[in-house]
Amino acid sequence: MNQTITDNGIVLAGNILTDNVKIIDQYPKETMLSNITSSSRAVGGCVPNTAIDIAKIDDTIRISACGMVGDDDNGQYVVDQMKKYGINTDAVKVTTDAPTSYSDVMSVESTGIRTFFHDRGANKIFSSAHIDVDSLDCRIFHIGYILLLDQFDKEDPEYGTAMARLLAEVQKKGIKTSIDVVSDTSEKFRQKVVPALKYCDYAIMNETEGGGVSGLEPRNADGSINIDNIRKTLEMFMEYGVKDVAVIHCPEGGFALDSKGNFAAVPSLKLPSGYIKGSVGAGDAFCAACIYCLYKGIDIETMLELASCAAACNLSESDSISGMKPLAEIMRMNKEMERAKKSW
């Protein structure tokens, strides 16, 4: 990598796994058959997806990964892939007590809609004890996913959850904190997410996850986006403690609210027929561009524009990272490609 690094960078912590992506002709009913037309292995999870995407957007930023893999071929593969993009993996622990986490991803060829079958593996063991907070030297610390990191989802008598305690400790060092979550319909969703928001500078999640926090339906009865509830949800994020910027994204667009009360809503790009090859990691791609823009001090409307372009890049390939483009290409897409008509 041709890097001229002039700042203290970003740390991405949390889920590390491999995605076994299988392209299928249709999603079958239970007991029925579906044809696999192709298969491949790729990195997956918050850490490699977001870290590699940011590195591909701008390779001059110092990026470090923090998490846990098993002592196996998948673990070596995902670490090697991150190193390939200049990412520091010194804080990635290796365990013999569990395999590297993986997901079997079934992606329907005609729509890109994907379904995950997940083994938590080493991510189930990874805890705050494996993160040396005192040695963190970064401007932003981003961690995900809440509800998919067992040790961080545990209750804490003082902070609510172990995740909230970790974020509080990181903030005390003057480091900006950021979270991502995984979609979960269980009753524990709000219980695990809300305590962490108190110690976040940034919170980024999709419309379903946002609704899980606020209790407000993100969509109207006809399936369209309920912009009033989206904004109210973002306002609740700030009330719960998010200090700087809260973001919600969905297929139709992105929405953001900052600490000054500025609200932005940007529709997604209008993509040509046949463009979408898969949607694995699309949320991480959107998140990566948001983190990059927050790191660079870019305004929230431009952030949402660039994040939607980054997500569109991701959709052009079946895996989680291959579609990402450098910043110049993302900016060109933002300038030249048409945006979908607002559906709110």
Task: Describe what you observe in this structure.
Helices cover 31% and strands 26% of the residues. It contains nine helices and 15 strands. The termini are far apart. The N terminus is likely disordered.
SSE topology sketch:
Elements: E1 10-14, E2 17-24, E3 36-44, H1 46-57, E4 63-70, H2 73-84, E5 88-95, E6 101-108, E7 114-119, E8 140-146, E9 155-156, E10 160-161, H3 162-171, E11 176-181, H4 188-197, E12 202-206, H5 207-214, H6 227-240, E13 245-250, E14 253-258, E15 263-267, H7 282-296, H8 300-315, H9 327-336
Parallel strand pairs: 1-4, 1-8, 2-6, 4-5, 8-11, 11-12, 12-13
Antiparallel strand pairs: 2-3, 6-7, 9-10, 13-14, 14-15
Helix pairs in contact: 1-7, 4-5, 5-6, 7-8, 8-9
Strand arrangement, major sheet = 5-4-1-8-11-12-13-14-15
Main beta sheet, described?
Answer: 9 strands, mixed
**Quick one: how many beta strands?**
15
**Portion of residues in helices?**
25-40%
What would the average pLDDT be, to the nearest integer? Answer: 94
Strand content: 25-35%
- The N- and C-terminal alpha carbons lie at a distance of 42 Å
Summary tags:
disordered N terminus; 344 residues; four-stranded mixed β-sheet; globular; 15 strands; alpha/beta; nine-stranded mixed β-sheet
